[in-house]
């Protein structure tokens, strides 16, 4: 396990106030990547140093802290350009990375599907391409003096070309996957079955809630970014009505633009949903900031206008009075905020009741009885209604369906009146 020194540089009052919280999150990221935090260094400056990001004296402090803690890694809570990274490494004599590199490393460890691996590789290549550097002038300048001329490409240019070619190939592969996803989304859009997407800050409890609702056993962890690859499963109500639920990658403030770009095909799954459930860690001191970070990303990918429910999760960690107050607000039938605990199940029935109202507003239950010899006319029912049950008896095909009135116009002569015949 690598031992890491974390470095935070603040230039504004707001950054200074959030510095401790930001480094705590960075420590969580480091742990998720497999590093042990050996020390933390803070600095407040009026402006960033273009050579080292921190001041010259602080570079010496970082080097001393790394030596004393036997650290072999320094992680900056900001992005470094190639020159800054090289300059700090030259001074501290250990590996130096920034926040984006750390997050990309976590994603690389967690990606399981071919699509996820391609998306992470694309993000890493896009990040590394402008940061390539040669080992001396002979590899970075062509035709610039004695010893730099000659046939063939210099190593740095070969590296750049290879990376550029690889990026192009990955983008073609991802485009193919995106077209397939788009086709699948279009099929679901034509289907009467609604879709709900879970979104939220990383480690807010999305996967725990997903498992509870779908009765899955998907891996969950308190580690950041325990879920990368999206998953879609069916969730049923007691009367047979159902919807599809998708779990998505967790967001984080200052999510690297390379990841947003690479995972756009996956994030578009959120845009195809009929309802978005924004999961918030109600027990976190950073609840409001995390909520704002997620909303900013949703706006950036163009899904801010989809009907949404705000889910205040982890209420089991709150004081009894505060928990009771939040649960009391669930009784409002028009509430767009639901308090619950995905761990204990408290409040989850309120969420399902609210989802039922949002997803199936205007839908009604109908019972249809069609003579068996004309059963083929029932094939079209699945395109405009949810077929909850189907059976054959006494020369008839009987169906229990859930639909808007317009969806069963063609079946009015076959409607069964009265009480539930099932």
How many structural domains can be distinguished in the coordinates?
4
Biggest β-sheet strands, sense, barrel = 6 strands, mixed
Series of secondary-structure elements, N-terminal to C-terminal: EHEHEHEHHHHEHEEHHEHEHEHEHEE
Weakly predicted, low-confidence segments? 134-151
Question: What is the element layout, followed by pairings?
Answer:
Layout (H helix, E strand, L loop, with lengths): L1 E9 L2 H21 L1 E10 L11 H13 L4 E4 L5 H11 L2 E4 H12 L3 H15 L8 H4 L14 H36 L4 E6 L5 H9 L16 E6 L5 E6 L9 H6 L1 H8 L3 E7 L5 H14 L7 E6 L6 H10 L7 E3 L8 H12 L4 E8 L9 H4 L1 E8 L2 E8 L19
Parallel strand pairs: 1-2, 1-3, 3-4, 5-7, 5-8, 8-9, 9-10
Antiparallel strand pairs: 6-7, 11-13, 12-13
Describe the structure.
It is a single chain. This protein is an alpha/beta fold and 422 residues long. It folds into 4 domains: 2-106, 3-Layer(aba) Sandwich (Rossmann fold); 111-144 and 152-191; 193-359, P-loop containing nucleotide triphosphate hydrolases (Rossmann fold), CATH 3.40.50; 364-414, no CATH class. The protein has 14 helices and 13 strands. The chain has helices at 13-33, 56-68, 82-92, 99-110, 114-128, 137-140, 155-190, 206-214, 257-262, 264-271, 287-300, 320-329, 348-359, 381-384; strands at residues 2-10, 35-44, 73-76, 95-98, 195-200, 231-236, 242-247, 275-281, 308-313, 337-339, 364-371, 386-393, 396-403. The strands form 3 sheets. A 6-stranded mixed beta sheet has the order 6-7-5-8-9-10, sandwiched between helices. It has a 4-stranded parallel beta sheet with strand order 2-1-3-4, sandwiched between helices. It has a 3-stranded antiparallel beta sheet with strand order 11-13-12. Strand 8, helix 11 and strand 9 form a beta-alpha-beta unit. Helix 1 (13-33) runs parallel beside helix 4, helix 4 runs antiparallel to helix 5 (114-128) and helix 5 (114-128) crosses helix 7. The longest helix is centred in the middle third of the chain and has 36 residues, at 155-190. The protein is elongated and about 90 Å long.
């Amino acid at each position: 396990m690598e031992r890491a020194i974390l470095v935070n540089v603040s230039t504004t009052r707001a950054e200074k106030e959030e510095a401790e919280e930001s480094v705590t999150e960075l420590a969580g990221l480091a742990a998720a990547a497999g590093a042990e935090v050996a020390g933390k260094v803070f600095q407040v400056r009026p402006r960033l140093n273009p050579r080292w990001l921190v001041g010259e004296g602080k570079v010496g402090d970082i080097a001393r802290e790394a030596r004393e803690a036997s650290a072999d890694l320094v992680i900056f809570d900001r992005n470094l350009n190639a020159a800054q990274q090289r300059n700090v490494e030259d001074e501290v004599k250990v590996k130096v990375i920034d926040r984006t590199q750390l997050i990309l490393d976590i994603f690389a460890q967690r990606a399981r599907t071919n699509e996820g691996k391609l998306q992470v590789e694309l993000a890493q290549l896009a990040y590394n391409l402008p940061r390539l550097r040669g080992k001396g002038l002979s590899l970075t300048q062509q035709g610039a003096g004695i010893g730099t001329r000659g046939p063939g490409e210099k190593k740095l240019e070969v590296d750049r070309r290879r990376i550029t070619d690889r990026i192009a190939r990955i983008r073609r592969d991802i485009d193919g996957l995106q077209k397939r996803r788009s086709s699948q989304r279009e099929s679901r859009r034509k289907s009467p079955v609604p879709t709900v997407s879970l979104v939220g800050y990383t480690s807010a409890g999305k996967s725990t809630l997903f498992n509870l609702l779908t009765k899955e056993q998907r891996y969950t962890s308190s580690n950041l970014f325990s879920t990368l690859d999206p998953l879609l499963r069916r969730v049923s109500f007691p009367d047979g009505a159902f919807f599809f639920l998708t779990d998505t990658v967790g967001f984080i403030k200052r999510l690297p633009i390379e990841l947003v770009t690479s995972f756009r095909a996956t994030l578009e799954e959120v845009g195809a949903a009929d309802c978005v459930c924004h999961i918030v860690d109600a027990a976190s001191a950073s609840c409001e900031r995390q909520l704002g970070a997620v909303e900013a990303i949703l706006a950036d990918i163009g899904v801010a206008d989809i009907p949404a429910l705000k889910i205040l999760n982890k209420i089991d960690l709150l004081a009894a009075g505060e928990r009771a107050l939040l649960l009391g607000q669930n009784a409002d039938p028009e509430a767009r905020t639901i308090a619950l605990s995905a761990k204990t199940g408290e409040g989850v029935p309120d969420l399902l009741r609210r989802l039922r109202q949002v997803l199936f507003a205007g839908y009604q239950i109908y019972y249809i009885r069609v003579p068996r010899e004309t059963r083929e006319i029932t094939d079209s029912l699945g395109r405009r209604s949810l077929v909850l049950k189907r059976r054959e008896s006494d020369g008839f095909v009987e169906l229990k369906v859930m639909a808007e009135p317009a969806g069963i116009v063609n079946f009015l002569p076959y409607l069964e009146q009265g009480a539930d015949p099932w």
